[in-house]
Amino acid sequence: MEYAQSLERLRNILDELREKCPWDKKQTIHTLRQQTIEETYELADAITENDWKGLKEELGDLLLHILFYSKIGAEQNQFTLEDVIEGVCNKLVTRHPHIYSGVKVQDDEEVKQNWEKIKLKEGKKSVLAGVPPSLPAIMKALRLQDKTKQVGFEWDHIDQVKEKVDEEISELYEAIATDNPEEIEQEFGDVLFALVNYARFLKLDPEAALEKTNKKFIRRFQQMEVMAQEKGKQLHDMTLLEMDDLWNTVKATERN
């Protein structure tokens, strides 16, 4: 089936549900908000796991949400799905002058720099204006750094970034020695911000890296629980040394 036909089928199904289903009738942009956030995180999980089947399913769920918001927007005489699509088409053409207007660029970094300049011309008051306040802190730090890079606020070399990480860690230790909770929190935040910057220079996504570590920890800890049960024990009844032995066994098994 052509994608246009598939999209029209989805719109027709949504129209029917909006008219006949008690749950769908009640939905507003506000009641859908939390579900949209959850669907986005489920998509992120599928990407992290390289789960193509899950990726396809979660993209479908998000597409449904886009159509649902557009349906409600049309009902409120605010905008239609066509308006949404035309809006993003126009934005893409405007912000890619190297494709549609003959502007020359050297690489992807220059593309991003032009993107930020165009947004300022469109009325943005700051290069940081496009960073959503509700983003998780690590993701927000990465976006802030990437944004300011586009105007030249950037280290020249990764060694400088490493020195900044070392400097911030030293300042954290100094703050810990003062036993001042507010200062410790501030310096700890500076360390995290510097590490995010270091990750960026290493071409890593710090949010994805931390999530992979979270998943690894969950997997290993749950395996420890299984091993403890096989010994007729529970982790809370074991000593730290015994649990550490289980942890090392799990790690060794994974490496082998």
From TrEMBL:
Please report the name of this protein according to its UniProt entry: Nucleoside triphosphate pyrophosphohydrolase
Does Hydrolase count among this protein's keywords? yes
The NTP pyrophosphohydrolase MazG-like domain sits at 27-99, 162-221
Keyword Oxidoreductase found:
no
Q: Which Pfam families match?
A: MazG
Record-level Gene Ontology MF annotations: ATP diphosphatase activity
**GO terms (BP aspect):** dATP catabolic process; dGTP catabolic process; dTTP catabolic process; dUTP catabolic process; response to stress; TTP catabolic process; UTP catabolic process
Q: Which SUPFAM superfamilies match?
A: all-alpha NTP pyrophosphatases
The entry's family comment says: Belongs to the nucleoside triphosphate pyrophosphohydrolase family.
Catalytic activity of the protein: ATP + H2O = AMP + diphosphate + H(+)
By its UniProt entry, which Gene3D superfamilies does this protein fall under?
Answer: MazG-like
Instruction: Fetch the InterPro entries from UniProt.
Output: MazG-like_dom, NTP-PPase_MazG-like_C, NTP-PPase_MazG-like_N, NTP_PyrPHydrolase_MazG
Group of enzyme by EC: hydrolase
Q: Which CDD domains match?
A: NTP-PPase_MazG_Cterm (cd11529), NTP-PPase_MazG_Nterm (cd11528)
What keywords are annotated for this sequence in UniProt?
Answer: Hydrolase
Q: What is its EC number?
A: 3.6.1.8
